[in-house]
Amino acid sequence: MQADAKAVKRPGQGLHHECIEKLPGGLISGVVLVDGTVRRSPTGNSDFVNRLLRHYEAKSWNGAPRYLGRDEEGRDTLSYVHGYVPWRGGNPAVASSAALAALARLVRAAHDLTAGHPLADGHEVVCHNDLSPKNTVYRSADEPLEPVALIDWDLAAPGRRVHDVAHLCWQYLSLGPGTDPSWASRRIREVADAYGVASADRQELVSKVAWWQERCWRGIESGAAGGDAALISLREAGVPEEIRAAHAWVTHHQQTLEADLASD
Q1: Residues in Cβ contact with 142 at an 8 Å cutoff, skipping those fewer than 6 apart
Q2: Spacing of C-alpha 8 from chain mean position
Q3: Does one domain contain both 19 and 111?
Q4: Which of 35, 38, 42, 156 has its CA 20 to 30 A from that of 54?
Q5: What is the pLDDT of residues 59-85, one digit of tens each?
């Protein structure tokens, strides 16, 4: 993290020196740590996300940051969740049986707290829609990894449970070239069992992984063509091609990936 400090004048308080650290990640919206709280520029979805985080707080659920309001610069202010975030990726421990089962239960708890709530707007639940290791806080970097909170709720929206579970499987299991399909099949079953995925949803879980992949690569290309700077950088880095390759891998191995879901 990059640390800095600046002096700001607050009404009735004189000069106050803020300690500022640039947090890793935050490709779409810059994220900084100021005096121990997370600050980020609002997005078009901020009002919904802030209501969601307040709902989780009202339910005393600690699996998400607390929304603390907006600062003098109009930035959303969130509590900082201490722990280990594998934001660079590449930590195989996120796909261990114990870590996946705990993660699935954490996601299930988030979903259950919004089922039937006005925030779900008539849908099953509110989905996170960007579940990945870089958006997960683990208690520490020691194994076995224990997920304690989900962060970066910018894309949260009403949806179906299976959508989040499918995204989880894609991201934490690295479903794409280089992953063993039989190993992945067993892990997908473990996630489904730990979450308690309904029988009907199990039948479409793998197809929803492919749905996410196609949605993501098309979204990046469309946004980049429209001039979005962050998405242009992803396109230039070859991310759409990587996701298309992952999509081809999932569709090619779909029968194998579904094998353990169908077993007793």
Answers
A1: none
A2: 33
A3: no
A4: 35
A5: 999 999 999 999 999 999 999 999 999
